Amino acid sequence: MTELIHTRDELAATLAPVRKVAVVMTMGALHEGHRQLMREARERADFVLVTIFVNPLQFGPNEDFDKYPRTLEADLEACRAEGVAVVFAPSRDDVYPGGAPSITMNAGPLGEILEGASRPGHFSGMLTVVEKLLMLTRADVAFFGEKDFQQLALIRRMVHDLELGVEIVGVATVREPDGLAMSSRNRYLAPDERRAALALSQALREGATHSDADLALATAGKILADEPGVRVDYLALTGTDLGDAPEKGPARLLVAARVGTTRLIDNVPLTLEKAA
């Protein structure tokens, strides 16, 4: 039976007798991608806890905090179906007692590129709530989707640099049957926008068939340019740590774009080979 709790005191009492804790952090509006995180967590821990909190610190002034979907009852049903022990759905005051914190996490240079360049302050707010939730949940292991690849890289860096002692596990992106990466924001797309959005996954998929960096970027870029319903924010090829792409070896191809008023992100792995 999945238990729903809302306060720090309830959380502490629930976790007192628990052995290995796995946490899946979400903002709700759960979909199959979140459920896959829960399944992987259940395989690795005695106790799986899901957090649901729409974090105001990681939304900019012109972003969609107020309209971000809140679907707690449906989310609870999804968690029950996946055997989650506890859902922690705190209020803003319970996460940030006394108001917005005066001290927050600094995402550093890695937080200023790609998503960070487009959304100033986003990663500072994200890392602040992740650190707080890691401490509140006493997690031994935490699961995050690879769709938000820069987020995953920053969380790993924070945990390493601050020696938080939590294992961070990345889980491969879950996609719709037509290839679109699952996202809570997909529900904002009108039918024609939904069709246009497929250019993102198609561009990445075709780009990743090439082992030459320039050809990978050119192939993906052409597919995106040919879709008038997509306005590209960035298309980038990086290393797996989001540094410069290697001449040879594992790399990541990432894209962010607006389709209508909805901003979507996606990425895929690929392997580069140095030209002869």
Features:
276 residues; alpha/beta; Rossmann fold; Pantoate--beta-alanine Ligase, Chain: A,domain 2; 2 domains; 6-stranded parallel β-sheet; 3-stranded antiparallel β-sheet; 9 strands; 36% helix; 22% strand; globular
Describe the protein's topology.
Layout: E1 3-5, H1 8-15, E2 21-26, H2 32-44, E3 47-52, H3 72-81, E4 86-88, H4 92-95, H5 115-118, H6 122-137, E5 141-145, H7 149-161, E6 167-171, H8 191-207, H9 213-225, E7 230-239, E8 249-259, E9 262-272
Parallel strand pairs: 1-4, 2-3, 2-5, 3-4, 5-6
Antiparallel strand pairs: 7-8, 8-9
Helix pairs in contact: 6-7, 8-9
Can you describe what's shown?
- This protein has 276 residues and is an alpha/beta fold.
- It folds into two domains: 169 residues, Rossmann fold; 85 residues, Pantoate--beta-alanine Ligase, Chain: A,domain 2, CATH 3.30.1300.
- Helices cover 36% and strands 22% of the residues.
- The chain contains nine helices and nine strands.
- The strands form two sheets. A six-stranded parallel sheet has the order 1-4-3-2-5-6, sandwiched between helices.
- Helix 6 crosses helix 7 and helix 8 runs antiparallel to helix 9.
- The chain is globular.
- 38% of the residues are buried.
- The mean pLDDT is 96.
